[in-house]
UniProtKB/TrEMBL annotation:
Pfam family, one: OmpW
Name used for this protein in its record: Outer membrane protein
Keyword Signal among UniProt keywords: yes
Residues annotated as signal peptide: 1-20
Gene3D superfamilies from the UniProt entry: 2.40.160.20
PANTHER family listed in its UniProt record: OUTER MEMBRANE PROTEIN W (PTHR36920:SF1), PTHR36920
Alphabetical GO biological process terms: transmembrane transport
UniProtKB keywords: Signal
InterPro entries in the cross-refs: OMP/PagP_B-barrel, OMPW
Length: 210
């Protein structure tokens, strides 16, 4: 389902890019250097199979998010995304499961974007990197959990819709490719595990040209 949503939005952006070739008659200097957005985002991890015979389940989180965008040119911009999320973690199979507590993620993400113009619509595509910091760890049913901070990649597609000269609405979808090494202290030894998180981030919000 997530792949279908992401593919549909990318197709939507290409349609508007084709329209923009005919619609865009604005001068190259007619843009704001800075803009900021406030979104509400859903962070949906896709951990998959991380342990032999068992699956790691990481909960979805809904949080506010703030981002700032700087335009180098009318089309090329860099966006810094700031948010933090809390996720519950479980591991199990069809017969049993164990509570691995919860962990907070702070994943500042920097994307390089290309913006298209089609009337009041401004679709964009982006890609970049993020560095995820794990903190506020609760170990749940085990003695201890240690998550390693890690780098990941970000892919992005979205669209702004102008309300007026200053304000606009925003829809944004990002896919983060993110994994971390986790040491699970079971009380009988430390079990090293590589956990794939790979969250899909879907956000809606409002922005302002500064």
């Amino acid at each position: 389902m997530k792949k279908i949503i992401f593919s549909a939005l990318i197709a939507f952006l290409f349609v508007f890019n084709a329209q923009a070739q005919d619609i865009n008659t604005e001068t190259t200097n007619d843009y704001s250097k800075w803009q900021a957005r406030f979104r509400v985002i859903a962070v949906i991890p896709s951990p998959g199979d991380n342990l032999d015979g068992a699956d790691v389940d990481i909960s979805t989180s809904f949080v506010p998010e703030l981002d700032f965008t700087y335009f180098f040119t009318k089309n090329i911009a860099a966006e810094l995304i700031l948010a933090t999320t809390k996720h519950d973690v479980e591991v199990g199979n069809q017969f049993d499961s164990a509570d691995l507590g919860h962990v907070w993620l702070l994943p500042p993400t920097l994307n390089l974007q290309y913006h298209f113009y089609a009337g009041d619509f401004k679709p964009y595509l982006g890609a970049g990197i993020n560095y995820t910091i794990f903190y506020g760890i609760d170990a749940g049913d085990v003695v201890g959990m240690d998550y390693e901070n890690s780098f990941g990649f970000s892919f992005q597609a979205g669209v702004d819709y102008n309300i007026n000269d200053k304000l606009f609405l925003n829809l944004d979808i990002k896919q983060l490719l993110l994994s971390t090494d986790v040491d699970v202290d079971t009380g009988e030894g430390v079990l090293p595990v590589e956990v794939d998180i790979n969250p899909l981030v879907i956000g809606v919000g409002v922005g302002m040209k500064l």
